[in-house]
C-alpha cells in the first residue's frame, strides 16, 4: 500500500507541475511575473495543499516581485488546476523559491575559480604522450590520422 501511495503522490505532483508550468508559461497578466521555472511540486497525500518550488531568473527584487505576483495569481491557478485535473480536492498553492539553481551556479563558479588557480600542466604532458605515435609495423585503424612527421617516405 505504501508503494502505491508514493507512486500516486508522484503522479499527482507531476500532473500539478505540468499544468502549472503550462498556465504560467502561457502568460499570466501580472506584469510582476518574470521568467519562472517550476522545479517541483510536493502535494499532501489528500491533495489539499501543494508546495510549488520555483526558480526565478533575475535580480533579488525581480525574484521578490515574481513571487508576489505568483501568490496573487493563486486563485486563477487553482481554477486552472480544477479545470484540467479531475481531483477530489483542488489544492491550495504555496509558492516557494527554489535556490538550488543559484547554489549550483555558485558551486560551478567556485570550482572554475579553483581550477583557474591551478598551475599549468608540465610541458611533456601538454604536448601529448609519446606512446600515441605508431611503431613500425603498427597499422592505422579506420579514422586514425597520419600527420606529416610520422608519414612513411
Which spans have pLDDT < 50 for at least 5 consecutive residues?
none
Which class best fits the helix and strand makeup? alpha+beta
Q: Within the largest sheet, what's the order of strands?
A: 1-2-3
CATH superfamily of the domain at 2-103: K homology (KH) domain
- N→C terminal distance: 76 Å
CATH architect. name of the domain at 2-103: 2-Layer Sandwich
> So how many helices?
5
The helix/strand order is HEEHHEHH
**Overall mean pLDDT:** 83
Percent of residues in helical segments?
Answer: 40-55%
Rg, alpha carbons: 27 Å
Percent range for β-strand residues: 15-25%
- DSSP strand tally: 3
* Shape call: elongated
Largest sheet: 3 strands, mixed
Task: Specify the CATH class of the domain at 2-103.
Answer: Alpha Beta
CATH topology assignment of the domain at 2-103: GMP Synthetase, Chain A, domain 3
Structural write-up:
This protein has 153 residues and is of the alpha+beta class. The chain has a domain at 2-103: GMP Synthetase, Chain A, domain 3 (2-Layer Sandwich), CATH 3.30.300.20. The protein contains 5 helices and 3 strands; from the N terminus they run αββααβαα. It has helices at residues 2-25, 60-72, 74-84, 100-117, 123-126; strands at residues 35-43, 49-57, 92-97. A 3-stranded mixed beta sheet has the order 1-2-3. A hairpin with a 5-residue loop joins β1 (35-43) and β2. The longest helix has 24 residues, at 2-25. The model has no long low-confidence stretch (mean pLDDT 83).
Amino acid at each position: 500500500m505504501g508503494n502505491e501511495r508514493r507512486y500516486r503522490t508522484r503522479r499527482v505532483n507531476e500532473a500539478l507541475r505540468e499544468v502549472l508550468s503550462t498556465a504560467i508559461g502561457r502568460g499570466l497578466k501580472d506584469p510582476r511575473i518574470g521568467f519562472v521555472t517550476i522545479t517541483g511540486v510536493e502535494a499532501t497525500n489528500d491533495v489539499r495543499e501543494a508546495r510549488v518550488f520555483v526558480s526565478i531568473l533575475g535580480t533579488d527584487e525581480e525574484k521578490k516581485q515574481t513571487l508576489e505576483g505568483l501568490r496573487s495569481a493563486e486563485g486563477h491557478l487553482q481554477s486552472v488546476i480544477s479545470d484540467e485535473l479531475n481531483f477530489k480536492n483542488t489544492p491550495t498553492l504555496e509558492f516557494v523559491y527554489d535556490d538550488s539553481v543559484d547554489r549550483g551556479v555558485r558551486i560551478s563558479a567556485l570550482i572554475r575559480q579553483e581550477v583557474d588557480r591551478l598551475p599549468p600542466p608540465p610541458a611533456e604532458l601538454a604536448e601529448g604522450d609519446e606512446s600515441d605515435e605508431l611503431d613500425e609495423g603498427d597499422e592505422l585503424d579506420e579514422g586514425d590520422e597520419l600527420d606529416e612527421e610520422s608519414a612513411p617516405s
